[in-house]
Amino acid sequence: xxxxxxxxxxxxxxxxxxxxxxxxxxxxxxxxxxxxxxxxxxxxxxxxxxxxxxxxxxxxxxxxxxxxxxxxxxxxxxxxxxxxxxxxxxxxxxxxxxxxxxxxxxxxxxxxxxxxxxxxxxxxxxxxxxxxxxxxxxxxxxxxxxxxxxxxxxxxxxxxxxxxxxxxxxxxxxxxxxxxxxxxxxxxxxxxxxxxxxxxxxxxxxxxxxxxxxxxxxxxxxxxxxxxxxxxxxxxxxxxxxxxxxxxxxxxxxxxxxxxxxxxxxxxxxxxxxxxxxxxxxxxxxxxxxxxxxxxxxxxxxxxxxxxxxxxxxxxxxxxxxxxxxxxxxxxxxxxxxxxxxxxxxxxxxxxxxxxxxxxxxxxxxxxxxxxxxxxxxxxxxxxxxxxxxxxxxxxxxxxxxxxxxxxxxxxxxxxxxxxxxxxxxxxxxxxxxxxxxxxxxxxxxxxxxxxxxxxxxxxxxxxxxxxxxxxxxxxxxxxxxxxxxxxxxxxxxxxxxxxxxxxxxxxxxxxxxxxxxxxxxxxxxxxxxxxxxxxxxxxxxxxxxxxxxxxxxxxxxxxxxxxxxxxxxxxxxxxxxxxxxxxxxxxxxxxxxxxxxxxxxxxxxxxxxxxxxxxxxxxxxxxxxxxxxxxxxxxxxxxxxxxxxxxxxxxxxxxxxxxxxxxxxxxxxxxxxxxxxxxxxxxxxxxxxxxxxxxxxxxxxxxxxxxxxxxxxxxxxxxxxxxxxxxxxxxxxxxxxxxxxxxxxxxxxxxxxxxxxx
Length: 759
Hints:
Elements: H1 4-17, H2 19-35, H3 41-49, E1 53-54, H4 68-78, E2 91-95, E3 101-102, H5 104-117, E4 121-124, E5 130-135, H6 140-149, E6 166-167, H7 182-192, E7 207-210, E8 225-234, E9 237-246, E10 258-265, H8 269-283, H9 294-301, H10 303-316, H11 322-325, H12 351-360, E11 361-363, E12 369-374, E13 380-382, H13 383-396, E14 401-403, E15 409-415, H14 419-428, E16 443-444, H15 458-472, H16 478-481, E17 485-488, E18 502-511, E19 514-523, H17 528-531, E20 536-542, H18 546-560, H19 567-574, H20 576-583, E21 601-602, E22 605-608, H21 618-646, H22 650-672, H23 680-692, H24 703-715, H25 723-758
Parallel strand pairs: 6-7, 7-8, 16-17, 17-18
Antiparallel strand pairs: 1-2, 2-5, 3-14, 4-5, 4-13, 8-9, 9-10, 11-12, 12-15, 14-15, 18-19, 19-20, 21-22
Helix pairs in contact: 1-7, 2-3, 2-6, 5-13, 7-8, 8-10, 9-10, 21-22, 21-25, 22-23, 22-25, 23-24, 24-25
């Protein structure tokens, strides 16, 4: 019997030989037409995104080894469209890996492409995809065809489409699962790929599958559609199904998925998702991208109306033979082992190997076998490591390897007798780092390295934290070792900071007249139970002080926790206000620039953050004082809203969040119009006229998007708040405050530049 991975590749190759191959040819033609100016850039942008091709930034320089000359030659040789277009510089290509299932042949293909067309590094994402950076747009059709030869596609890896269907990397081997979800994830990925009912979305659409409810491998709660396996007995016969949730998502404002069906039969997975896609395409927001995800449609309609509409759509669907064809024989699709089962040999006393055994090995439900996690620092590995990994997987297994949502690999079906030899092989390839899924195995997004939305260096901070935590592992309390830390370069949660025990996301502040990279500390998230709860930001800390902040939080947890108390329960019991007090002095007494210039730069980038001194003067000092006082007030109100929410006072929490937005908006308005009153109608009108209509609030930090949060909150002022709606408004208020900071900082920089010129 073929393994599920092989069946996926065979079926996908059939698609690639026909429809998708034609699409690659068409895309190659579209590239040339865009070069000739015959296709509008906006249209072409969505076209390339749906084929996995992103633009990227180049101002950080952290992964530029060996690519500056290529980039320069490229931009000088073919850039005919002017600045700020896809032709300016290479970008990023995202490659879909449904349910994380990959093979040695695919790893080798990725290695070749990384060397020939990228910077020699492949990156694993939090959706189990591969990414290649510094890829030229002209090379993408060739790369796509070479990927197709090994059964991989970039189709709909980005854009307003169905993104990668993720799945538990331990599916089929986990002792706690109800059944193997792999065939169902594979079937949905094949079914939705290029499906006509999934081409009219206002934003992306993310599905996932999990084999159980207690672990975090599938993260059902953060997805547009989440399937968690379960069984029931009907007339004495076991029946497979899924606990089906809808409307989850992280992003700037996280929403937990809502229960759609306690038990959705497996044969309804494809048609029900198709019905939801049709409803989302027809009724989802199209104009306002900040509210174009499925979660906002559910928030607007409520789960009952949404469910009623979807069920009606499902009843009206015409029968599709693919609903059953893609699921035929799923219960007999199995992976097999290459080697006979065995017992784990006794440890030889090597402390590092012993630590690796403790953190990177999971016993399979099949006796005598283990699943081995390969932990990847920052989710990166080199072309040579990809080849080494392919050889290792071939030697010890039947090619059974998967990527994970924690940016790692899992090698499945390893005979326990082979574990020492496997460790030695991984160690020789520099792939034997211990600490998988522990505090030192941090998750991060690309941040300012390559992402155009990055505010602070998430990869730089993560690398620093990882170095420190790895050195401290031996002395750590076991409760601290098991914590999950996640870092995002901005508010968008690509690093999944909302569902970490301790999360960080990048923001910026002005200190002593200079821009300084900061990170908001996020507490209250839960990684287990498929992302059981979301955290909220409690305080912004200068980037260079974040390692100390993390150390203080973990130390406070160890000193004051109750017996066997988890970190999630600890935060609830102690309260965010008390933890914030532990960090309070880290927000004060910043060093003068000349005394410690490193404080004013980001991790991994020695240059001064931002564009330098914004200029000083008596008038500027007066404005800064008034502005900073008001913004401190606004930030306090947002934080107090969180405390009220934790105390069960949803109404007052929502009211405080709205008041904080009005306070922040007034702070910005007063810079240009000092006579504005406290009346919310006047504040909003003046803000709209002076900052929204003039597009001063439109910037890389999505200020225009967050201005709409203010307008929406103002329109809804006076409504009754539920815990969910209050939490959402608090998150929106925090983002609006950050957008006000970004707008103000940018204006100050521009004013400082003018001052320098006139002086």
